[in-house]
Design brief:
Elements lengths: L2 E5 L5 E5 L4 H10 L6 E5 L5 H12 L3 E6 L2 E5 L7 E2 L1 H4 L9 H8 L1 E5 L12 H9 L3 E5 L2 E5 L7 E3 L5 H11 L5 E5 L5 H12 L3 E3 L5 E5 L8 E3 L4 H13 L3 E5 L7 H9 L3 E5 L2 E5 L9 E2 L11 H8 L5 E5 L8 H8 L3 E5 L2 E5 L8 E3 L3 H13 L3 E5 L2 H6 L3 H7 L3 E5 L1
Parallel strand pairs: 2-15, 3-14, 6-7, 10-11, 18-19, 22-23
Antiparallel strand pairs: 1-23, 1-24, 3-5, 4-5, 7-9, 8-9, 11-13, 12-13, 15-17, 16-17, 19-21, 20-21
The chain binds ligand EPZ.
Length: 417
């Protein structure tokens, strides 16, 4: 298993370019199942989850003509297999995104239930409720979600909880349902709006994506997808925080400041200089960090996927900050690892209280999920001596070339087998 070794104390300077958003390309790959003909997706990030999703749609009968660099060309005309096997789905929860498209296109879906993961049980009960509302008959059998649907019918449906992939799944299924579907309490993430725009370019009739009420008029078929994946706002936030922690002066290129308002506001409150332009952000750390409280919320609130990274920043602030996680029930796995590096953090229910310390000390640490692993690398950037982060396959799932991008900014970071 690879490890990443970071030697602390090197300020970051220069430019870093953000890759396409993992959480946008996964639903778009699932959406190709709804279409007939050759689709082309550009600005695809080179991350493990994308490879997994391409393999999954291939398993379902999609022909992949090109998958290299940041471009995928695939054709779902002959797609005929409704079964998404356990060995693929179990490695990536987002595989559940094929449920809605399979039901809409083939009238059947048999998708292994995603395993839980480090940050919580992460059920898909809200996906299932939404698809049943559209008329699908869904059974849980032998660890599989098995759904059938002669013809999906439009419905008015309200999600009990805001769910990003749940909204995407039901929205995709509704594009080919009969009649009108109205989804209330829908997720408002930019990746939801992006998916709706891509589907509309293929002939779907979706209105209101990006608000909590999405209206979809069913159509009979969709033409192939042509799109360029939008920049990854979580990757961008990660490098902005890296620059802030490492007292750097970094320009983050190919990002959308409008998708990161809460993070930019909180960095400014912490005393970090953040200047934005249309598609880039310049971040300057100045060694003095003020404590800031954050509470994670669905978009447009402070993103849960940036909580761990921001916590690392707060471990060095002058004072006490409180970090409340409201989206996932167990997303403080990184706290124990940060404490092993000398951070002073205590947890009460869903709130972590961080008391700033003078410095962090390098240590062997272990990642538990994608963003926790990123937060440990960020801690290593400023910790004394070396930090050895193991289980870096988490990083490879969602960050393209992290050590290369950080090295180019001046970090002393290397991967060892
Ligand atoms: C998406 O996950 C993202 N993944 C996650 O990013 C992100 O953390 C999350 O949204 C929240 O923003 C992708 O887009 C591929 P949810 P998703 O459904 O859709 C509960 C990363 O780091 N829930 O919005 O799975 C759930 O347990 C990943 O890139 C149910 O109870 O998240 C959670 O507590 C991590 N039943 C809350 O809702 C359901 O049927 C929000 O989950 C669905 C969700």
């Amino acid at each position: 298993m690879d490890k990443i070794i970071v030697e602390g104390g090197h300020p970051l300077n220069g430019q870093v370019t953000i890759s396409g958003a993992k959480n946008a390309v996964l639903p778009v790959l699932a959406a190709t199942l709804l279409t007939q003909g050759k689709s082309e997706i550009q600005a695809v990030p080179g991350v493990r989850d994308v490879t997994t999703m391409v393999r999954l749609v291939q398993e379902l009968g999609v022909k992949v003509d090109h998958f290299e660099g940041d471009r995928v060309v695939l054709d779902a005309t002959g797609m005929n297999n409704p079964i998404a096997p356990y060995d693929l789905v179990s490695t990536m929860r987002a595989s559940c995104l094929v449920l809605g498209p399979l039901l809409a296109r083939l009238g059947e879906a048999k998708v292994s239930l995603p395993g839980g993961c480090a940050i919580g049980a992460r059920p898909i009960d809200l996906h299932i409720k939404g698809l049943e509302a559209l008329g699908a008959k869904i059974q849980l059998e032998e660890g599989y979600v098995h759904g059938t649907a002669k013809k999906l019918k439009g419905v008015r449906h309200t999600f009990d909880l805001v769910t990003v992939t749940g909204t995407m799944n039901v929205m995709m299924a509704a594009t080919l349902a009969e009649g009108e579907t109205v989804l209330s309490n829908a997720a408002r993430e930019p990746e939801v709006s992006f998916l709706a725009d891509v589907l509309n370019q293929s002939g779907a009739k979706i209105k209101g994506a990006g608000t909590d009420k999405i209206v979809i008029h069913g159509v009979t078929s969709l033409t192939p997808i042509e799109c360029q994946i939008l920049p990854d706002r979580i990757e961008a936030a990660t490098y902005m925080i890296a620059a802030a922690i490492a007292n750097g002066n970094v320009e983050v290129l190919n990002c959308t400041p409008g998708h990161m308002k809460p993070i930019i506001d909180k960095l400014r409150q912490a005393g970090v200089t953040v200047d934005t332009s249309e598609n880039s952000v310049r971040v300057k750390g100045n060694g003095q960090l003020s404590p800031v409280d954050i509470t994670t919320e669905p978009y447009p609130g402070f993103a849960t996927d940036v909580q761990a990274q921001f916590m690392t920043l707060m471990t060095l602030a002058k004072g006490q900050s409180r970090i409340t996680e409201t989206v996932f029930e167990n997303r403080f796995m990184h706290v124990a690892e940060l404490k092993r590096m000398g951070a002073d953090i205590s947890i009460e229910g869903h709130t972590a209280t961080v008391r700033g310390v003078e410095y962090l000390s390098g240590a062997p640490v272990m990642a538990t999920d994608l963003r926790a692993s990123a937060c440990l690398v960020l801690a290593g950037l400023v910790a004394e001596r070396d930090t050895v982060v193991s289980r870096v396959y988490h990083i490879d799932r969602g960050y393209q070339d992290m050590e290369k991008k950080l090295s180019q900014l001046g970090a002393a970071i290397r991967r060892v087998k």
